[in-house]
Structures are given as structure tokens and as C-alpha cells.
Amino acid sequence: MTERYEAVVVGGGAAGLSAALVLGRARRHTLVVDAGEPRNAPAGHLQGYLTRDGMRPAEFLAEGRREIERYGVELVRDRAVDVTRDEQGEFDVTLAGGRTVHARRLVIATGLADELPSVPGVAERFGRDVLHCPYCHGWEVRDEAFGVLATSVLSVHQALIVTQWSKDVTFFLHSVAEEEIPDEELRRLAAAGVRVVPGEVAGLVVADDRLTGVRLADGSTHDRSVLFVAPRAVPRTGLFERLGAELSETPFGTYPVVDRTGLTTVPGVWAAGNAVGFAEQVVNAAGGGYRAAATLNGELLLADLDAAVRV
């Protein structure tokens, strides 16, 4: 028989666990489906989360799992591969392991994957001295020799923002032609003291397991100890697409259209965390999961009371 839950949360990261915690404390029969693919797995620590600054991501998630367990929330290590909405507006979720579960309401917090540029060495060092977010890692590498690898014209913003943490910044244009960059942005780079280096980046220079430089295709090298890159965001939208949710194209990927609580255009389905946007940090994701869960709980309560009134 299909197991029935009041809420199923798909995704066991900060957003999903936060939603599950709120639902468990609200005495909702809740299941978390966790594929075990947190976006911040390569990072050695998370930052900017009050009282959790510097905590290892794996430790953070382990503590979250212990907390939801105290409130009777179930967690299964599996992947949701399909979802359908029935005539009553409820949902059947099919898991990769063959199990099907029924949910009155859904929170989808499947996040996204970071697709890194195909420069040798970048993927291997990502989360160590090849970094993405200065708000996450800038303090730890402050005043070091920064490089910024352009992946598009939008990388200009990244080159400018990292100057808050170091005044020694080199912007490698890589596959971006200098004429593609607006004059206003070039003037900003100059004003910030950022050196602009044209030419394709061929690889990284590493010594004693530390980044020491960036090598161009022409053979020249530039001493750098940190390299910032902007990965291409690949949102995991499969479940939203199966449900027919409205999606919106952005410069940072395609995401479901949601209201301020995370409710999608499919009644009964909320999105949270990086499932709704590229820039959601751990603290934002947790807040989004909280809002979604609180709204979901209130909606279920009113639905049940209205049903009782009709009877």
C-alpha cells in the first residue's frame, strides 16, 4: 500500500531540513526524501550563518537530521524521480528505489548543481582555493593574490565585488573578448585597481597541493593563490516540470515562479532554497524552508476546518 503523509519534503539540505523541522514541531506526519547531493559539499565550512559561522557543512546537516528526528520526521535516503497530482489536488511521489509515497502537500528543495568551466584543475580544487562566493570564503583568503576567471560578461561583477577582500585582483578574460565588456565596466575595473588579462586560461599551477598560479594558452603564467569562478547554475527542475509549474528564465538558470512564501503556480507545492534562485545562501535557504513549512501547515489546518464545516 502507498504510505501516506501530510507533507513530503524533497531535498535534505538546509531548506528541506528547516521545512521538516517546522512541520515536525507542528505535529505534521512528514517525510524527507534526501538524495544526499548538497550543493556546498565541496566547501570545508559555511560562513555568515549566525551561531553556525565556520561549521562544516556535513556537521550542519547531521545536526539538522538529529533535530528533525526528535519530532518524529522520517528521512529516507533516496531520489524522487516522478510526481503526479491526483484529482483531489494531492500528490504521489515515486522514488528511485521503487517506493511510492502519497503527500497532501509538497515542499521541493532539490537545489541546483554547479557546472564548472572546463579548465584543467578547476573542478579538483573547487571549494579549496578555487572559490565561487566571496561572502562564503572571502574573509578566510583576505589580502591574498586573487584571480577571477571570466565565464561571461557577468563575471565583471564578481571581479569588482572581490576587491572588498583583496586589492590584488587579476581578471582573466578567458573566453570573453575585451570588446564585449561595456566601457563603463572597464572604467570601474580600472578604478578598483583590477588588472585585466586577455587570453584563454589553459590550466592552473599547483605546488605542494596549493594553487600558486594561472597558466594561459600562450604559456605565460600569473602568480595567484586564489581563483574565483562563477559556475553555471543547473537548477534541478524535473519535478516542477512534471507538475506543470510555471518556470521563469533568468541569467542564472530557469526557476519556478513563486510567491513570497515559496508557493509555486501548482497549488499545494512550495519551493525553497536554491530551487528558487541561484544566490540563496544556507541561512537564506533555511529561512525559505521555514516560511514554506509554516504556510503549508496553515493551509492544511484551514483546509481541514473547512471540510469539517461542510460536514
Structural class: alpha/beta
Task: Give the low-pLDDT segments.
Answer: none
If you compute it from the alpha carbons, what radius of gyration comes out, rounded to the nearest whole angstrom? 22 Å
Mean pLDDT: 96
- Domain count: 2
H and E order: EHEHEEEEEHEHEHEHEEEEEEHEEEH
Largest sheet: 7 strands, mixed
CATH top level of the largest domain is: Alpha Beta
CATH domain topology of the largest domain: FAD/NAD(P)-binding domain
Instruction: Tell the overall outline.
Output: elongated
Reported CATH architecture of the largest domain: 3-Layer(bba) Sandwich
Cα-to-Cα separation, first versus last residue: 28 Å
Query: Which quaternary structure do these chains form?
Result: single chain
Strand coverage percent: 25-35%
> Based on DSSP secondary structure assignment, what is the total number of beta strands?
19
CATH superfamily of the largest domain: FAD/NAD(P)-binding domain
As a percent range, the share of helical residues equals 25-40%
Task: Work out the helix count.
Answer: 8
